[in-house]
Amino acid sequence: MIAGIQVVVFLVLHLIIFGMCIVALVDAARRPAAAFTAAGKRTKGFWLVVLGVATAIAFVALPYPVGIGALNFFVAAMAAAAAGVYLADVRPAVGPYSGGRGPRGGRPGGGGPGGRGGGW
Description:
The protein is mainly alpha-helical.
């Protein structure tokens, strides 16, 4: 019984890591290349390679019921670290330079319909 619970927890952790890598990779691919250099971060190509490798590692590391489980959890945690650095540090820094994707849905003036700020 305990072993079954451990397998499920292990699978869920791997799926979370894989999902996090996919989200980071897709987000990096959608950002303009100039935003990375404007924010003082590494280039878009660098992050696409790092996140692409991290996503591939996370995919290969998925345990047997879903994937082949060829790598151990430590390697999957390294993939999670790469995606985590992008999501926690690079993504917020690049966001303001991405154009049209402001903090309030990208509308001029923020807020509600038609770009009027504040209120209900």
